[in-house]
Amino acid sequence: MIQILISAGVALAVAILVTPVLIRLFTRQGFGHEIREDGPPSHRTKRGTPSMGGVAIVAGIWGGYLAAHLAGLSFHGAGPSASGLLVLGLASALGVVGFIDDLIKIRLARNLGLNKTTKTVGQVSAAVIFAVLALGFRDADGLTPGSTQLSYVREIATVTLPVLVFILFCVVLVSAWSNAVNFTDGLDGLAAGAMAMVSAVYVLITVWQHRNACAITPELGCYNVRDPLDLAFVAAATAGACIGFLWWNAAPAKIFMGDTGSLALGGIIAGISVTSHTEILAVVLGALFVAEIASVVIQILAFRTTGRRVFRMAPFHHHFELLGWAETTVIIRFWLLTAIACGLGVALFYGEWFATVGD
After folding, report:
1. Closest by Cα among 104, 241, 95, 83 to 181
2. CA proximity to 34, closest of 44, 26, 20
3. pLDDT band at 48 (very low <50, low <70, confident <90, very high)
């Protein structure tokens, strides 16, 4: 398991060292962030803060993952797996979409980048390619990275999706998670801190799946998941990269991750949830992200149907700011809610295993 520590440590080091380089580079180039005109007044002082810091996060994740495998050569470890590369490929593709979006915002000095159609096409294309490839690459035990069976903490045998429905399901997951993390990234360090916690929990989950894999210990309660240990490397690298970036992104932020980082991180959640067969459990772990995107949907539906707003501003972290909460207060309390959700998710995951073994 030393490889997991190497993955997290290298990712943290890359992110914490690359980010200040990006801050200086983007500041010289004038790559400043534009602020919503209707946003909280306190955010106007953030105009001009360098954006696109997600480049450091993506670099950190890849660096940590590859370092873990290079170290694994000394322990006779296997090379990168189909599952790990698919998740990283999905995240990187979404990161490219976000990078283009950020670049347009900066070049045109506006808060809007890619139009909705173009951005959606990019997200959907990445999701479809991921879904199709996830049903391929069978290992020696016949397992593929993804499964057409819907999963809670393991596959639900009674719910099998047709291939086309599975692809559509993946499109919904990728779009929802990438947009959810994107909406959450509105306060200094909020998304990075929450994502670090969710990723850390996925390290625990995938390591447990590896230790109790049916291919290794075919007994009651085992998991039919392909490459769980490799997914642990990805999750550890993500946690490390987010913590390293958080050093510079915590309030008052010296750089923002932008869509480059938020879309990529959303892809990590979507990809790992599919490949670890925990699509439903991920909703619990990422409850903060779910609540953020839900507040936007509720606000839009309420305004279009009644002409009234449920929140003073959506996503709803801005609602609390407009109620008079300090930004740091909102951030810390939302982090606490994320920690509670992660704790509940871990309890549900291990509780299901103990219940299965006990039966």
Report:
1. 95
2. 44
3. low
Q: Which residues are CB-contacts of 225 (< 8 A; sequence separation ≥ 6)? A: 143, 206, 209, 213, 231, 275, 276, 277
Phi (first) and psi of residue 137, to 5 degrees: 55, 55
Give Cβ neighbours of residue 348 (< 8 Å, ≥ 6 apart). Answer: 153, 281, 284
What DSSP state is assigned to residue 34? P
Contact of 227 with 134, CB cutoff 8 Å: no
Q: Could you give the percent of the chain with pLDDT greater than 90?
A: 67
Q: Which of 48, 11, 47 is nearest to 28 (CA)?
A: 48
Average pLDDT over residues 11-15: 98
Does pTM surpass 0.85?
yes
User: Token digits for 299?
Assistant: 């606000």
User: For the chain, give me the number of helices (H) and strands (E)?
Assistant: 12, 2
Q: Token pair for residue 332?
A: 């810390």
